[in-house]
Amino acid sequence: MKGPDYFFCRIPMNPLYKHRIFCFTENAAVFLWKDNDLPLAACPNNPGHAVDAGGTFVDKKLEPLEAVYRHRIHCVTENLDVDRWEPNATPLASCPNDPAHIVDPASSRIIDSRAQASSSHVLKETADAPTGGHFKAESLIFAAGPNGSVTVNKSWPIPISIHSLRVGVQPGMIGDSFSASFGNDALVGTLAADVAIGDSVIAVSPSVMQAAAPGYFLVLVVASVPTDLGRIVSKDPVASTLTLETPSPSAFSAAAPTSVEIDARALDSIEFGVEGLFTLGDDRSNVISVPAGTPMRCVYTNSTAAAKRLVAYVHYSY
């Protein structure tokens, strides 16, 4: 019986556009992320600045692996919350509408985020993953020092369908391990509520809900420090919550902000038990279809005091 085919499918999301306008007052081009392509009519830094109305245009859409954050701060002068997309997680300190306005600094927070390559791809089953019909094989080389690990990141500029991943297990590699994942712990959003020690159900931003799927691994990151909470067990679209395999060992603040990352792990620290050719996938009917630019990360861990060289082979159609 033919098993399921796997592919990464795109979920429609509102696109984000990077706008540019030339500010005469600052004598520089000023950028602003917006969720529409309507031209800018004022300087994003200060609406009172003089600008070149004919020099405004959309610089680009959100690029693969590029993250932007939707910030919110309460403007006391306008008596309302004001939002602005920024390419960083630094809290807002002034009103996006007018930096001269009075704001409540304590209200500054991130309410959403986008990471194009990760948040729009989810592992699904399909019986059809068409390509152009061309076949190719590539090798990945892992030179591991004594008791060391080697990571190789690989991506393709075109969509491909991977038929198999083969690893040559040589004498002396028994007990070593190998991992392969897609997405590389890619940023998909943020927490929507604080997480206490022992929590296994967490509230997340809309972009996380769009990207999440049972079986994916989820990681919380604060100040570049990751905490792996294991697999996503289930999701509640109404409450916008995820149930996780591993209760949180620490407390996390939504206002920090705490970033949410996920990946799909095809091989999760598989230990070599026999010599020979280890194969993930063994024919051209079952495939992992990978969109252009989506990273694949492979990690080889050497468990002995002798240096080793491992070779893996990726067979795919394009």
Describe this structure in words.
The chain has three domains: 10-118, no CATH class; 131-183 and 266-317, Jelly Rolls; 184-264, Elongation Factor Tu (Ef-tu), domain 3, CATH 2.40.30. It contains two helices and 21 strands. It has helices spanning 116-119, 206-211; strands at residues 5-10, 17-23, 28-34, 57-61, 67-75, 80-86, 103-115, 121-126, 135-144, 149-154, 160-169, 177-190, 201-203, 217-222, 225-236, 241-244, 259-271, 276-280, 288-290, 296-301, 308-317. The strands form four sheets. It has an eight-stranded antiparallel beta sheet. Strands 1, 8, 9, 11, 18, 19 and 21 form a seven-stranded mixed beta sheet that branches. Strands 3-2-4 form a three-stranded antiparallel beta sheet, with no helix packed on it. The model is unreliable at 1-13 and 116-128 (pLDDT under 50).
Task: List the main descriptive attributes of the protein structure presented here.
3 domains, 51% strand, 21 strands, Jelly Rolls, 8-stranded antiparallel sheet, mainly beta
Strand content: over 45%
Taking the sheet with the most strands, its summary is: 8 strands, antiparallel
Class from helix and strand fractions = mainly beta
Topology order in helix (H) and strand (E) letters: EEEEEEEHEEEEEEHEEEEEEEE
Tell me the number of helical segments per DSSP (H or I, 4 or more residues long): 2
Average pLDDT confidence is 80
Number of domains: 3
User: How do the strands line up in the largest sheet?
Assistant: 10-20-12-17-14-15-16-13
Q: Indicate the overall shape.
A: globular
Oligomeric assembly:
single chain
Number of strands: 21
Helix content: under 10%
Radius of gyration: 23 Å
In the predicted model, the low-confidence regions spanning at least 5 consecutive residues are: 1-13, 116-128
Instruction: Determine the N-to-C terminus distance.
Output: 25 Å
